[in-house]
Amino acid sequence: MLDEELGTHHGLSWEDFVLLDALHDAAGGLPLPQLATRTGVRSSGC
């Protein structure tokens, strides 16, 4: 339900939101392997 609401109102998927939140927490920068680990997404997906 949250994924649908994010997509409808903001054009984001849940994965996009998690990725942006991780970057925000890291002050905008993380090495790709750490970002992938924090978000649960493969490095190629980031």
Provide structural commentary.
This is MarR family transcriptional regulator. It comes from Ramlibacter terrae. 63% of the residues lie in helices and 0% in strands. It has 46 residues and is mainly alpha-helical. The chain has a domain at 14-45. The longest helix is centred in the middle third of the chain and has 12 residues, at 14-25.
Written as H for each helix and E for each strand, in order along the chain, the element string is HHH
The shape is: elongated
- The proportion of strand residues reads under 5%
Report the C-alpha radius of gyration, rounded: 11 Å
Helix vs. strand class: mainly alpha
- Poorly predicted segments: none
